[in-house]
Specification:
The complex is a heterodimer. Chain A is α/β, with parallel strands linked by helices. Chain A contains 7 helices and 10 strands. Chain A starts with 6 loop residues before the first strand and ends in a 7-residue tail after the last strand. In chain B, the strands form 2 sheets. In chain B, strands 1, 4, 5, 6, 7, 8, 9, 10, 11 and 12 form a 10-stranded mixed beta sheet that branches. Chain B has a two-stranded antiparallel sheet with strand order 2-3. In chain B, α2 (about 20-55) crosses α10 (about 345-385). Chain B is elongated and about 125 Å long. The chains are: A alpha/beta, B alpha+beta. Bound molecules: adenosine-5'-triphosphate and magnesium ion (MG).
């Protein structure tokens, strides 16, 4: 399965300057991810998982090294180019859901489409479809405060998928959920991503969650210490 | 992001914080209405000033005289130069763009006799064709015409001359017990330019004296409007008729080949200054009420600036209020801004959303402020109406105020909008 990678990371380093101290969050990461791969980054707290994910999503600039996604060099892009890049290629699932509290589920899912200039009618139609794929067609007109955490996160999944991105990033998408719900949500994410043939990059510190992924990247102190493939991911 | 979506989203963001938005709008209402009311007072004062000038005579008239004052270089002294005002110059005035009518005038002094009563009068020769255009209004009758070859001359009397009739022998006024003149337009009149006809009647002419001037029969065909304007003082006769009389009476000492003055009528007040300059250029002296009006307007402008500045202070306070509200809402919505940035909202759209919110505050504040201004303006006019002090809100002021308040609001929103635009999207992801 030698395919041209959709993500190609070469010797990426990230240094935070906190006062006079330099925090080396990433110390030289080399990584390739093929299209359609479900990929999980695990590691201890503070090991640099979130930093790496944010960098891949174009939310944080690298200190050195190259990040090539869909043949584009993120490290050379300006802020506005990065936003355009995110519009076209990236969907994002947050740990704390981050739904707009005053919008209904349907409006929340339709929201990212408005930034892309999609007309309202089309937006709502596509949002409905997305909500259906995560099994929430009965909760379309609920506000986030009227839904459980798991339901909210599924709205979050629908929102990440509605723009039809190639890559979906998720930083501890089950971090705020109990373990039963976590499994459901994880299955929901993996099922939809697989059925639509998207690429998923997900961060977690829960080894159990990692069992859903095809590829597990283990990070420690800003370095990849191990990459292994699950022969039989739980999500199939 | 589509403009419609942007407007809707921005409106909803405001609507969600109704009370705060309302208070900010209220600040803008006060700011806008104080500016509008202040400026409307300035406009009102200006209008009533112009009206009071206009009641003295037409603002579009220019009086041209043959004498021109040329100030010396330092302005402390000067010399007068003369240029003859004749038929030819009248024709050239007619060709100046912006001129719609020209009327040469000659003036003289005569005595009118009616039975035993006598009155002195200033007589102006006018052209009945254009007299109406120059605001020579009659309260009765018609303009005087010239009957060539006739022995009777037509005259339009002024009320003052009628009132001034007296008996030169006794000095008694020709008024009855009610103060009304016994001499009316229907009386028989005679005109002379030789005082000996009045005061030395019956005495013979001494040796070597000029022969007595003629007495002319007059027919009064009208009465000059007594309204306080520049013509109420004169009796009016036809220009050509008066010329003929001048030729027959050398004692009048009136050169009929030139005019005392020429009146020039301009199409509108805007044309006055250019027409005036063109005539000045030819070397004549000019004056117009417009000069006085312009001078008054210059002083008025300072008052208007002052009034506007007073209103401006409250608008400034309102603008700071907007800025404060917007900054607060950005701090509150830091996370939300981060989220929409991650979801792919462009930088420009984020700034646009916040600018729209500010613009809404300006628009609502401005519109409500205008409503309040119209109300206040009516109250002011009701309270002090008729004292020459009034409040007028012309359309340009209303439109300008609305535009200005939106502009001010957007300027106040600019910095907060840029702040929002530059916020890092990572704030959305970090968990508190
Ligand atoms: N904005 C920042 N400024 C300074 N240091 C930072 C910043 N963000 C992260 N770090 C540091 O970089 C290192 C990696 O942080 P990161 O958030 O990537 O860890 P993580 O693996 O996601 O941990 P967790 O599992 O707790 O979320 C940490 O030592 C952290 O202190
Ligand atoms: Mg993390």
């Amino acid at each position: 399965m030698e395919q041209k990678p959709i993500i190609d990371v070469r010797n990426v380093k990230k240094v935070y300057h906190v006062g006079s101290v330099d925090v080396h969050a990433l110390r030289g990461i080399d990584l390739t991810i093929a299209p359609g791969e479900l990929c999980c980054i695990i590691g201890r707290s503070g090991s640099g998982k979130s930093t790496l994910l944010n960098m891949l999503a174009g939310l944080e600039p690298v200190t050195s090294g190259e990040v090539v996604i869909a043949n584009k060099h993120l490290e050379r892009m300006t802020q506005s180019e990065l936003i355009l890049f995110r519009q076209r290629h990236v969907g994002f699932i947050f740990q704390s859901f981050n739904l707009m509290p005053y919008y209904t589920a349907l409006e929340n899912v339709a929201f990212p489409l408005s930034f892309r200039g999609v007309p309202r009618k089309v937006r709502l139609r596509r949002a409905k479809e997305a909500l259906k794929t995560v099994g929430l067609e009965s909760h379309m007109n609920h506000k986030p405060s009227q839904m459980s955490g798991g339901q909210q996160q599924r709205v979050g999944i629908a929102r990440a998928l509605v723009t039809d991105p190639e890559i979906i990033f998720a930083d501890e998408p089950t971090g705020n959920l109990d373990s039963n719900t976590s499994d459901d949500v994880m299955r929901s994410i993996c099922d939809t991503v697989r059925s639509k043939n998207k690429t998923l990059i997900m961060v977690t510190h829960d080894p159990h969650m990692a069992e859903f992924a095809d590829k597990v990247i283990n990070i420690l102190d800003g370095k990849i210490i191990d990459i292994h493939y699950n022969e039989q991911p739980q999500s199939i | 992001m589509k403009l419609g979506d942007m407007l809707r989203t921005a409106f909803m963001n405001l609507w969600r914080r109704k009370l705060r938005a309302f208070l900010t709008v209220l600040g803008m209402v006060i700011g806008t209405s104080s500016i509008v009311v202040m400026v409307s007072l300035g406009v009102g004062i200006r209008q009533s000033t112009i009206e009071s000038y206009a009641s003295m005579g037409s603002l579009t008239n220019i009086t041209v005289s043959s004498w021109r004052w040329v100030p010396s270089a330092d302005g402390s002294s000067g010399t007068s130069t003369e240029k003859k005002l004749d038929k030819k110059s009248v024709e050239t005035f007619k060709t100046i763009p912006g001129v719609i009518a020209v009327m040469p005038q000659i003036q003289t002094y005569g005595m009118i006799k009616s039975g035993k009563w006598v009155s002195d009068c200033n007589i102006m020769g006018i052209d009945q064709e254009v007299a109406a255009q120059f605001g020579i209004d009659l309260s009765e009758g018609r303009y005087p015409a010239y009957k060539r070859g006739g022995s009777t001359y037509e005259i339009v009397m002024s009320q003052d001359v009628l009132n001034w009739f007296y008996d030169p022998n006794t000095g008694r006024q020709a008024t009855d017990n009610d103060g009304n003149s016994r001499v009316t337009l229907d009386s028989r009149f005679q005109l002379t330019f030789d005082s000996r006809n009045i005061y030395q009647s019956g005495m013979g002419i001494s040796e070597g004296e000029e022969p007595l001037g003629k007495m002319y029969r007059l027919e009064a065909v009208g009465l000059v409007s007594p309204n306080n304007n520049e013509f109420s003082w004169y009796c009016l006769m036809d220009l050509e008729a008066l010329k003929k009389l001048a030729k027959e009476n050398p004692s009048m000492n009136l050169d009929t080949s030139v005019y005392n003055q020429v009146l020039v009528k301009c199409a509108d007040t805007d044309a006055v200054s250019s027409v005036k300059a063109a005539i000045d250029e030819m070397g004549f002296g000019t004056s117009s009420l417009q000069d006085a009006v312009e001078q008054a307007e210059q002083q008025m402008q300072q008052i208007q600036y002052l009034l506007g500045a007073i209103g401006g202070v409250s608008l400034l306070v309102a603008a700071i209020g907007i800025m404060n509200t917007m900054m607060m809402s950005i701090y509150e919505r830091t996370r939300e801004i981060g989220i929409i940035k991650v979801l792919g909202c462009r930088m420009g759209n984020i700034a646009g959303l916040f600018l729209c919110e500010a613009a809404y505050i300006g628009l609502f504040g401005g519109a409500l402020g205008l409503g309040v201004s119209y109300g206040l303006s009516q109250v002011i006019n009701m309270l002090v109406g008729g004292s020459g002090f009034r409040s007028v809100i012309p359309l340009y002021l209303a439109a300008g105020a609305l535009g200005f308040s939106v502009l001010v609001a957007m300027i106040s929103g600019l910095y907060p909008a840029l702040r929002a635009m530059r916020l890092s999207p990572l704030t959305a992801i970090r968990n508190e």
